[in-house]
């Protein structure tokens, strides 16, 4: 049995979940904006107490690695790396677009072959996205994409593509294809990290604590404010 504590700070939601193998034991979350740095440790502590686990009894820690909110990702990764260092525990990273896809699968009842296309809003008409089949085989890798009405045209053949995530609302307004389907209210949360995290832990697919950094897709940069005068 493996006990894994999962953290997702990649979006508006800050969430913590604890799994025994792939079974969800407990989950706590908050949607208070710009509060991840203040509330993450509180959520971890509450999840441990609610699950009757001590921090030392956690076998591995998993974190959403991105893409997503630059600030949120840095908070989540730095917190979990600190716990792994201090407790000498392994670190597991989970792609945020795959977490969103696990969430979406709960709302798809389709016996035919189909593709999954998670989208994270990257401002204006740009999204972070990837394309996978229903078995999570990658067809198009993670990328930043500027959407237009012809995006994904000719890719699916006769197969359906399910679009979801906060970036998909922009594409829904301009897309015109009978094989395109949209699922609302799908987002990244630690509740859907258990299966991927458990498989990675079993296969010893752990990150190098020294080298691991969030996966932004695009470089992060600051815009300097001009001084008066």
Protein model, in words:
With 229 residues, the chain is of the alpha/beta class. The chain folds into two domains: 3-96 and 188-202, 2-Layer Sandwich (Nucleotidyltransferase, domain 5), CATH 3.30.420; 108-183, Nucleotidyltransferase, domain 5, CATH 3.30.420. Helix content is 26%, strand content 29%. The protein contains five helices and ten strands. The protein has helices at 36-51, 70-87, 96-105, 168-174, 194-202; strands at 3-8, 14-20, 23-30, 60-66, 91-95, 114-121, 126-133, 138-146, 160-164, 180-183. Strands 3-2-1-4-5 form a five-stranded mixed beta sheet, sandwiched between helices. A five-stranded mixed beta sheet has the order 8-7-6-9-10, with helices on both faces. The protein is globular. The model is unreliable at 221-225 (pLDDT under 50).
Strand content: 25-35%
- Number of separate strands: 10
Q: Going across the major beta sheet, what is the strand order? A: 3-2-1-4-5
Distance between the termini: 64 Å
Number of domains: 2
Total number of helices: 5
Ranges where pLDDT stays below 50 over 5 or more residues in a row are: 221-225
Fourth-tier CATH superfamily name of the largest domain: ATPase, nucleotide binding domain
Content-based structural category: alpha/beta
Shape descriptor reads globular
Helix content: 25-40%
CATH-level-2 architecture of the largest domain: 2-Layer Sandwich
The top-level CATH class of the largest domain is: Alpha Beta
What Rg, in angstroms, do the CA atoms define?
18 Å
Succession of helices and strands: EEEHEHEHEEEEHEH
- Mean of residue pLDDT? 92
């Amino acid at each position: 049995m493996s006990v894994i504590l999962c953290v997702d700070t990649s979006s508006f939601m800050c969430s913590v979940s604890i799994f025994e193998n792939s079974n969800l034991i407990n989950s706590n979350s908050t949607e208070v904006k710009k509060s991840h740095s203040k509330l993450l440790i509180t959520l971890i502590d509450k999840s441990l107490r609610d699950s009757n686990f001590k921090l030392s009894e956690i076998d591995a820690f998993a974190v959403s690695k991105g893409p997503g909110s630059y600030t949120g990702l840095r908070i989540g990764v730095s917190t979990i790396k600190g716990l792994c260092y201090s407790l000498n525990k392994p670190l597991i990273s989970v792609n945020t677009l795959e977490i969103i896809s696990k969430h979406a699968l709960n709302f798809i009842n389709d016996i035919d072959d189909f593709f999954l296309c998670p989208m994270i809003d990257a401002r204006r008409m740009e999204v972070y996205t990837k394309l996978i089949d229903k078995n999570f085989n990658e067809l198009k890798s993670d990328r930043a994409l500027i959407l237009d009405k012809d995006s994904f045209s000719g890719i699916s053949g006769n197969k359906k593509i399910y679009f979801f995530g906060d970036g998909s609302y922009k594409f829904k307004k301009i897309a015109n294809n009978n094989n395109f389907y949209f699922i609302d209210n799908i987002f990244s949360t630690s509740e859907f990290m258990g299966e991927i995290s458990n498989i990675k832990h079993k296969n010893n697919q752990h990150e190098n604590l020294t080298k691991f950094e969030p996966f932004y897709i695009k470089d992060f940069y600051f815009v300097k404010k001009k001084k008066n005068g």
